[in-house]
Batch of 2 targets.
Target 1
Amino acid sequence: MLCVRTVAPWDVEVSVRPASVREGHEVTLSCQSSPSLPRSNLTWTFDGVPLHPLAASSTSPGAHGGVVTRSEVRLRPQARDNGRAVVCTAMNGLDQPVHGEARLDVTHPPIWVAKPPEKVDVFEGAELIITAEALSNPGPVRFCVSDGYEGETSEKTENVRLGEDWVRRREGRLNR
């Protein structure tokens, strides 16, 4: 009598090389399923959009007669991709698919989210608040006005408050 045991994948491991990547440079993501029988089919998504692996998935013998499946994809992430997840899904039709993910760590210079005005009209002696929002990795973002005033943000946004002593007969603009 022949007895064939089937096993669904129960885990997926996703790794990223290098762990941190500069904007526009290449990063390789690897996915490996736990042993399954029949072998797992691995698929990739980035924000719900399918990604295509570099080559066909490879396999190797796994524990208890199962098969470990591996796949790789390469990306050139942009600043907006920092912190976003790339998901690998393993399924072989026996049970629910299992998912693993890796979040991208993309280093990049500051980019404006809410750009400050080029020029601000203000009455002499008045208090002035300029709101600006920028993102960078690593942070924090630093804001400077042309007269040397400097403010540091916690992560991405800051109101630069200039007191009445600063607003005298001079023009203040945020430097970019």
Note: The chain has a mean pLDDT of 83.
Target 2
Amino acid sequence: MTTDDSESATIDQAAAATASDSGDAKTSTTASADPNADVADLGYEQARDQLAAIVARLEGGSATLEDSMRLWERGEALAAHCQRWLDGAQRRIESMTSSGDTSDS
């Protein structure tokens, strides 16, 4: 299985979990947990690659409306996760460069 196939399978699994959670009012509270909770465990590159795959699928226009909505929701979670990674990296860089600036004075 290639990396693209693996990412597509992960996206499909997350979309299927969302479908099963939102389609049945009788689901238990454990079954209705956030289907995108796994996003928090992804590294930046993994999240970015999944997000790119979702964008490509949405732009392809072949997904049903329900699938498109699930993909969109996962994409939003992935984008927010990537932004948190980038914000953290920026803070680290700023803290390293600002500590270096005070020694020059």
Note: Helices lie at 3-23, 44-60, 65-102.
